[in-house]
């Protein structure tokens, strides 16, 4: 898995071996149970397995709507929602205070450790902090069991209230996005515009997810 994730991160063509394992399991079952299976069973099982297990991960700028859309996805799917920032707050208290006291590098270490633990689980909606993409190792942790969506909203519409790293007005946001835009592009499998209701955005994500379970 690690090699495949590194290949994807670097843009190298690669193939997931899961479908071959399922094909072997079907062949073994047919042999030992003396049964014949329809040819469609392989693709059906593969899609069902991926649909049940695949995490939906949300990345994007602070204030882009990740948490709100995450809640809408959780309501539509019945999946648990894991908000990485909330987990960080449970561990260290106020994020702004922690960064001001210990620095951003220390904060990113805490964030990365939590992402590493959560990314090993399956069947979740995961909403990340805006700067999670600045730690390259987070790609493998998030992508190993999921599909990553960048939630995009125009910079002038972002809510930066209480966000120490993105406070400072539109100029600060433009500086942040200049640095982070290529990182979002490298992490994501799809970009979703945050237009319409949270439910409509969530539905577009689900439509994309199910159409890519091949």
Describe this structure in words.
With 214 residues, the chain is an alpha/beta fold. The protein has two domains: 1-53; 54-211, P-loop containing nucleotide triphosphate hydrolases (Rossmann fold), CATH 3.40.50. Helix content is 57%, strand content 10%. The chain is built from ten helices and five strands; from the N terminus they run H-H-H-E-H-E-H-H-H-E-H-E-H-E-H. The chain has helices at 2-9, 18-33, 41-53, 66-77, 84-92, 95-102, 104-119, 137-143, 169-187, 198-211, and strands at residues 55-59, 81-83, 125-127, 146-152, 190-193. The protein has a five-stranded parallel sheet with strand order 2-3-1-4-5, with helices on both faces. Helix 9 (169-187) links the parallel strand 4 and strand 5 (190-193). Helix 2 packs across helix 3, helix 6 packs across helix 7 (104-119) and helix 7 (104-119) runs parallel beside helix 8 (137-143). The longest helix is centred in the last third of the chain and has 19 residues, at 169-187. The chain is elongated and about 70 Å long.
Would you identify the regions where 5 or more consecutive residues have pLDDT less than 50? Answer: none
Q: Could you state the order of secondary-structure elements as H and E? A: HHHEHEHHHEHEHEH
* CA radius of gyration: 19 Å
CATH class category of the largest domain: Alpha Beta
Shape: elongated
Give the helix proportion (percent range): 55-70%
CATH topology of the largest domain: Rossmann fold
- Distance between the first and last residues' Cα: 18 Å
Overall pLDDT score: 86
Strand order of the largest sheet: 2-3-1-4-5
Q: Give the CATH superfamily of the largest domain.
A: P-loop containing nucleotide triphosphate hydrolases
Number of helical segments?
10
How many domain units? 2
Sheet-strand content, in percent, reads: 5-15%
Structural class: alpha/beta
Main beta sheet strand tally, sense and closure: 5 strands, parallel
**Number of beta strands:** 5
> Can you name the CATH architecture of the largest domain?
3-Layer(aba) Sandwich
């Amino acid at each position: 898995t690690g090699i495949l994730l590194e290949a994807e991160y670097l843009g190298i063509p690669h193939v997931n071996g899961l479908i071959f394992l399922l094909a072997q399991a079907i062949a073994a079952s047919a042999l030992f149970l003396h049964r014949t299976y329809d040819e469609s069973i392989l693709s059906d099982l593969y899609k069902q397995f991926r649909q049940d297990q695949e995490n939906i991960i949300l990345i994007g700028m602070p204030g882009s709507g990740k948490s709100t859309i995450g809640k809408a996805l959780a309501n539509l799917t019945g999946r648990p929602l894991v908000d990485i920032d909330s987990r960080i707050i449970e561990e260290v208290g106020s994020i702004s205070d922690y960064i001001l006291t210990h620095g951003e590098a220390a904060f990113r270490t805490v964030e990365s450790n939590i992402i590493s633990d959560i990314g090993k689980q399956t069947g979740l909606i995961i909403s990340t902090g805006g700067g999670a993409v600045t730690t390259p190792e987070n790609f493998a942790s998030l992508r190993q069991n999921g599909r990553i969506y960048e939630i995009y909203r125009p910079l002038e519409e972002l809510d930066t209230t209480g966000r120490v790293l993105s406070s400072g007005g539109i100029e600060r946001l433009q500086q942040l996005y200049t640095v982070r835009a290529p990182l979002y592009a490298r992490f994501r499998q799809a970009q979703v515009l945050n237009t319409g209701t949270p439910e409509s955005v969530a539905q577009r994500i689900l439509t994309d997810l199910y159409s890519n379970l091949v």
